[in-house]
Amino acid sequence: MAQNKTRPTDVPIEEFLATATPRRREESRVLIDLMRDVTGEPPVMWGPSIIGFGSYHYRYDSGREGDAGLAGFSPRKARLTIYLPDGCARHSDALGALGPHSSTVSCVYVTRLSDIDLDVLKGIVTDSVAHMRELSDQQQAEGKS
Questions:
Q1: What residue spans define the domains of the chain?
Q2: Alpha helices of 8-115 — where are they, by DSSP H?
């Protein structure tokens, strides 16, 4: 079975941030503090462009399994991408109070961090992390991972 392309690397966070624009570097530092506070985990590069915090193990009914970041983001040039592994649908009410953003199945896109409510974002990330930890614990108890 093929390995996931997105997995932890040894690339230093500051080395990666040096390639970002000054605004994205500053926004990244804010998100790093927020996600480190929520997860209790240090930031680690996942693949070439995702800053992740902690991990969880997943296993699909198909047998495919792997590890993914518990929380994370990518400071892309056009927009910040914030990853919610439990999906955006679970957070629809809170996302309504976040401020200007767009979203897909498990990604929230923000143009400027200063335009959104960071307390709302912290609540969303906190809920997502708690939910993923609970799911991971359930799978371990059931012997699925």
A1: 45-141
A2: 13-17, 22-39, 92-98
